[in-house]
Structures are given as structure tokens and as C-alpha cells.
TrEMBL record:
Alphabetical list of InterPro entries matching this protein: DNA-bd_dom_put_sf, MerR-type_HTH_dom, MerR_fam, Redox-sen_tscrpt-act_SoxR, Tscrpt_reg_MerR_DNA-bd
Species the sequence originates in: Embleya scabrispora
PANTHER family (alphabetical): REDOX-CYCLING DRUG-SENSING TRANSCRIPTIONAL ACTIVATOR SOXR, REDOX-SENSITIVE TRANSCRIPTIONAL ACTIVATOR SOXR
Signal peptide: none
BP-aspect Gene Ontology terms: response to oxidative stress
UniProt-recorded Gene Ontology molecular function terms: 2 iron, 2 sulfur cluster binding; DNA binding; DNA-binding transcription factor activity; metal ion binding
UniProt superkingdom: Bacteria
Gene3D superfamilies in the record: 1.10.1660.10
Keywords, sorted A to Z: 2Fe-2S, DNA-binding, Iron, Iron-sulfur, Metal-binding, Transcription, Transcription regulation
Domain HTH merR-type intervals: 1-63
The name this protein goes by in its record: Redox-sensitive transcriptional activator SoxR
NCBIfam families: SoxR
Pfam family, one: MerR-DNA-bind
Amino acid sequence: MTARSGFAASALRYYEAEGLITASRTTGGQRRYERHILRRLAFIRAAQNIGLSLEEIRSALSNLPEGRTPTPADWAKISRAWRGRLEEEIEALVRLRDGLEQCIGCGCLSMKRCRISNPDDQAARYGSGAVTLPELLREDRRHPHG
Ligand code: FES
């Protein structure tokens, strides 16, 4: 399963502990994953690539009836919703790039003038609750365990 899914065994154990996937046990106590879990893992990987946190992935999965693995129709609907999110990330990156243009050849790193190094301006630029980098660039959110 590890090779087929492209996930490390530790990641599979983590997702199981987090309740995102389930595994049955062989008589020898080894984990076994049903076929539909591969599809669930593909969903998790797609969500991570979009930049969703584990909490958001959990929420998306728990919104499905009876905790089912996303059907093609589910995925078609959810992926449409995520498109908007990706657009926001792209816009944030464009703003970041434009801010950086000002820094090229400058070197001041002034907290007053530099749009990139000024955390307050940055937070205002990305909206409430935002941090200095677009979510897409925060590796820790994308691949917590490989
Ligand atoms: S380093 Fe001077 S504006 Fe950013």
C-alpha cells in the first residue's frame, strides 16, 4: 500500500490516527487498507497540493454523507470550490512578487518602507488572520509527514 499510495508508512499511520483513513488488521496484526482508501489518499494529496490544512481536509471529508470516500460527483463539486481558494493564493503571490520588485536593488529592509519585510502591511495586504506568506508556500501545512 505504501508504494502504491506514494505515502510513507508513517504518513499512513498518522492519517489513521487522525481519523482521515481507516485500516483493518490481518491476523498477524498488520495494517490492511481497503481499495477505496487509495482514492481517499488521492483526495488528501490533492487537498494538500491545493494548500489545505489537515483540519480543513478533515472537515471536507466529514461533510460527506456517512463519512464516505469522495465519489466522482463529490470531487467534481469540491474541486470547483477549491478553485476559488487557489485563485486567492495566486493573487497573494502576485502581490508578493510585486512587493519584491521594490526590493530588487534596494537593500534597505526598512520596516517602515519595505512592503515585504513590514509584517503589519503584509497582514493588511492579505486580509485578516493572514500571515506573511501565502498559505501555498507554507510547507508545514502541505506535507506534515511526507
Ligand atoms: S528592501 Fe527596500 S523596499 Fe524592500
